[in-house]
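ESCALATION

Customer reports they have been waiting on this structure for their group meeting. Please prioritize. Original submission:
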Amino acid sequence: MRCVAQHRWTVGVLVVVSLIITPRGGPFAATADPTRRIVLFGAGTSLATQEQLVTALGGQILHELTLINALAVQFSLGNLTTILQSLLSNPTVVGVYDDSIAMQDLETVLTSELNPPPGTWFEWGENHIHVPPVYSNGIRGSGVTVAVLDTGMDFTHPNLAANILGGFNAIAVGPGGSYYDDNGHGTHIAGMIAATPYQGNGLIGTASLADLVAVKVLDATGSGYLSDFINGLQWVHAHGIPAYGIRVLNMSLSFAHGSVPLQKAIDRLSQQGAIMVASAGNCGQAGGGVDEGGGADGGGPATACDLSQPAQNGVLYPAAYAEVMAVAATDILHNVTYYSRYGPQVAVTAPGGAQASVRLLSTVPGGYAWGSGTSQAAAHASGVVALALQCQPSLSFHQVVAQLQATAHFNSSYASNRQGAGLIDAAQLIQVLQPCIQ
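Update from on-call: job pushed to the front of the queue and completed.
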């Protein structure tokens, strides 16, 4: 196996095209549909009673969110105030909440390479967290399944197809709907977690033998509704865990604010033993942070977090919840990136890259692309969690986080609210979890 040099310009002559990934941030800021609501019902309220109430008020049911005893509903805008008053006066209704927007944490425009670099290689991110020696010892995430809640996956990609068990489109109303990635972000994240070479060529992901399940909760623009995300979590809870053995959930997306429905859904997955990993979020974009930078690639100037405004630059959701591991990003120089959101919720850092230095190469539909952001950091962390679970499958969320933090490298140049316990180290982690090394 050959490891290519750590800089992206050393991988050879390639066919290059432009892949546009339109985020919800900056000039593209998403606006939630004001007619969409999540209606939360009291315990014991039957689904039939829930449906009867909202349809009597003219509501169209978008998702039955039985995981949290709720319905996602679209109402008429003309008499919305009257409808909401009627709902809130009903004794079976606990609350009515905005169906807010989630956004991917990735930069705007990527340069996609249709032909793979020759041979097999680890990107610099895997080298920074010492994945190659673990890989050489046979620890590659075997037997561990990771769900990627994102824009879907390219299940035909030669470096991913063998590892993808299946998936679910949580956006589609009603049964069916493809989980194919029509944006690029989900495939990019999946490659960092578990890409595997095909016919002697391609990227080696952090946990190259881990299985992947695609849960499409974001659309072609890289955005999605809270109810879509909860619908995806609901599918993982009811089908993904029992059918595919999902242990790890990678959530490289963010909501600007927490909410009761989101907290309830996260609680349910936590109770089921899911190990949830999420990006801390990127600073500088409307609604909570999408764009790492863009710069010369067309996304505008990079925006640094304002360290004097912690309330405006804090960790986003779901990463901010205690049941989720929040991951901030480092660059190729081991610095905590200027765009990484911060706060006491940050558990660790992992490679995320930066437009100002070197981004990270990974899979996208039709080829490869460079990207950077806390999305990529979360993907690396999810892959390392899969390595740990191969060694000790019974590890709980809190045990995994504790071991990752105990073996991380703290950078004395940064406060703990910027980096948590520091940069994760796969080799040190696996050493602690011996005797799993072959």
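Sent to customer with the following note: The longest strand covers residues 324-330.
Escalation resolved.
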